[in-house]
Write a structure and sequence with these properties.
CATH superfamily of the largest domain in chain A: sav2460 like domains
Radius of gyration of chain A: 23 Å
Structural class of chain A: mainly beta
Shape of chain B: globular
Strand content of chain B: 35-45%
Number of strands of chain A: 28
Order of helices and strands of chain B: EEHEEEEEEEEEEH
Number of strands of chain B: 12
Oligomer: heterodimer
Number of domains of chain B: 1
Distance between the termini of chain A: 43 Å
Largest sheet of chain B: 6 strands, mixed
Strand content of chain A: 35-45%
Structural class of chain B: mainly beta
CATH topology of chain B: Lipoxygenase-1
Helix content of chain A: under 10%
CATH architecture of chain B: Sandwich
CATH class of chain B: Mainly Beta
Number of domains of chain A: 2
């Protein structure tokens, strides 16, 4: 395994004879910001002349699967499967990038890496830290490119302007989500790239997920994340306290079409099950928000759901949702993503019914609720599951 | 048609351009396209004797000593960012005026403040050295370094040298640890 420094280059053949590779990237940063990791397949001029070769969260694979986004695996936040010999000649360069979604800069990165794997074993690794950066919000981490032969370069350079600047660098442009700007006098023929995610903005906003689409047999993934640094700042009269990170618990109340019902949450240790009823599974309890991927709930058989109400409540570290920056991302089996921000928190209530999931036929309807309650029992009263409630603790 | 060299390759300038008297050595690189401090690259040239040393300190041609004492070699100026098409820095050489005890003109490039800016040649795109005929600026030979540049902060790009009564050019592309000072001292300059 060869270790790379920023700026270092190598012929790929000096690292591995393989051209079917896995590229893994990982970034850790304080505050657990969200990084979007993408791959741009660009031409000899470094331009994205064919936007089907921009592989990212809204487009998980290039036309013939030469580049495919695999999601988190083997300790990497994101990984890609690449088949270099299948790439058309016009694609000269695969550029792997990381973009900060939201506030902050790349200088906050505590550690990160890009690594190349061949048949599961690591052949190259480029480690980096935030000290390599200052105000960048998007970075080109590394590149695999043709120049006579396939080569690899550890780049580690970026753009303060984030994803828009990155797209501009590759000759593309971001499609505006809302108001379209007036067209420039002579619009350059630039490929348009849709980088918008579906955001459910207001209570009652709905999105229908078609389960019959490709990948419909994969689970619906519900992710809850929040700001670890946003906790209650202590202090107090005698200087006790200090700060404690907020601990949010993700869970759901469910009722299946066969009548089974229950509550899945870390409280009481009911994590559900993947392979038997209710086919709903909670992966872990992140007590601090430090895990960059927050807490995750998987709906393995969404078609069997009558009603699922996904909730979060504050177990500790914060008194209400106003300071925690809660956000939920729901990814369907084909990789499309729906975002829900908790943007109208209630100061007096620490339980939030975030969304509901209802299945009908081959589609599933996801609705933003964002209704705040004093606790489980009050929420149940509103959604009508009819459970019997007793107090519990972790 | 210019000759394109790879690392280690050489070409006879006298054969490629018969009657060649003056050459312009051009060096170029792309301006930084990402955010961060500019790449400020400095070209320098050493007039070397058979033993690979300068005759004296004035044989070290760089931004603070732009012309050799005999006037045969002249540095045409420093470009601070790499902006502009074509060459970013040029050095003009009157081959006939090069003193007989000078065997070789070695051309190096260093990154200004490389350490404090955390920069190296691997971060610079499309670096090249080329030799042109001074009469009409037609390109005789070119060496594109990009794939030979990596974590170095100082590099020897190429050399123009005497060989059996001819002038030849060789593509070097070799890293040099340290920077401009150590590079100059290596050639016997009291830097």
């Amino acid at each position: 395994m060869k270790q790379f420094n920023r700026g270092q280059k190598s012929k790929l053949a000096d690292l591995t004879p393989a051209t079917d590779l896995t590229v893994g990237l990982d970034l850790q940063a304080s505050g657990s910001p969200t990084f979007d990791i993408s791959c741009f397949g660009v031409d000899a001029e470094g331009k994205l002349s064919d936007d089907r070769y921009f592989v990212f969260f809204n487009q998980k694979a290039s036309p013939k699967g030469e580049v495919r986004q695999l999601g988190p695996r083997d300790g990497d936040a994101e990984s890609f499967e690449v088949h270099l010999s299948n790439l058309p000649p016009k694609i000269q360069r695969l550029v792997f990038t990381a973009t900060l979604d939201g506030a902050g800069t790349m200088s906050q990165v505590s550690r990160g890496h890009l690594r190349l794997l061949s048949n599961g074993s690591e052949v190259a690794r480029f480690p980096f830290t935030g000290s390599d950066f200052s105000q960048e919000k998007a970075v080109i981490v590394g590149e695999i490119y043709r120049k006579d032969v396939w080569r690899f370069a550890a780049v580690g350079q970026g753009f303060n302007g984030g994803l828009s600047a990155l797209l501009e660098h590759f000759g593309g442009q971001e499609v505006a989500e809302d108001a379209a700007p007036p067209p420039p006098p002579a619009p350059p023929p630039a490929p348009k790239v849709n980088i918008s995610k579906v955001t459910l903005d207001k209570k009652g906003d709905k999105q229908v997920v078609d389960l019959s689409k490709r990948g419909g047999d994969r689970p619906i993934h519900i992710n809850l994340n929040w700001d670890a640094s946003a906790g209650r700042r202590g202090g107090g009269f005698f200087g006790f306290g200090g700060s404690s990170a907020p601990d949010l618990d993700l869970g759901c109340m469910y009722r299946l079409k066969n009548g089974d019902s229950g509550v899945i949450q870390a409280l009481g240790g009911n994590f559900g099950a993947r392979d038997r009823s209710p086919f709903i599974f909670l992966d872990k309890d992140d007590r601090s928000g430090k895990a960059s991927d927050g807490e995750n709930l998987y709906l393995h058989r969404p078609q069997e759901i009558d009603l699922v109400m996904v909730f979060a409540f504050i177990y500790g570290g914060a008194s209400d949702f106003t300071s925690v920056g809660g956000r939920m991302a729901i990814t369907d089996g084909s990789g499309d993503q729906i975002l829900i921000q908790l943007n109208s928190p209630d100061r007096n209530r620490n339980f939030c019914a975030i969304s509901t999931v209802r299945a009908s036929g081959s589609s599933v309807e996801i609705t933003k609720e964002e209704q705040y309650f004093r606790g489980h029992k009050e929420a149940d009263g509103r959604y009508g599951f009819g459970f019997r409630w007793t107090a519990g603790s972790k | 048609m210019a000759v394109s060299l790879s690392k280690g390759g050489n070409v006879s300038l006298s054969k490629e351009a018969p009657g060649l008297k003056d050459v312009v050595i051009g060096l170029g690189w792309d301006t930084r396209s990402t955010d961060g401090q500019d790449f400020d690259l400095d070209a320098s040239l050493f007039l070397l004797k058979e033993d690979e040393k300068v005759r004296n300190d004035s044989d070290f041609i760089f931004y603070n000593n732009k012309k050799s004492s005999d006037g045969s070699v002249e540095h045409l100026g420093d470009n601070l960012t790499g902006e502009g098409a074509g060459d970013d820095e040029q050095i003009k050489v009157n081959l006939e005026g090069v003193p007989q005890d000078v065997q070789k003109l070695s051309v190096g490039v260093t990154i200004h403040e490389a350490d404090s800016r955390s920069q190296n040649f691997g971060m610079v795109s499309n670096a090249f050295i080329r030799v042109m005929n001074g009469v009409d600026n037609s390109e005789i030979a070119r060496y594109d370094l990009s794939e030979d540049a990596s974590t170095e902060t100082a590099m020897l790009f190429g050399e123009v040298y005497r060989n059996k009564g001819e002038w030849k050019f060789k593509a070097i592309g070799q890293g040099f640890s340290g920077g401009l000072g150590p590079m100059a001292r290596n050639y016997g300059v009291n830097a």
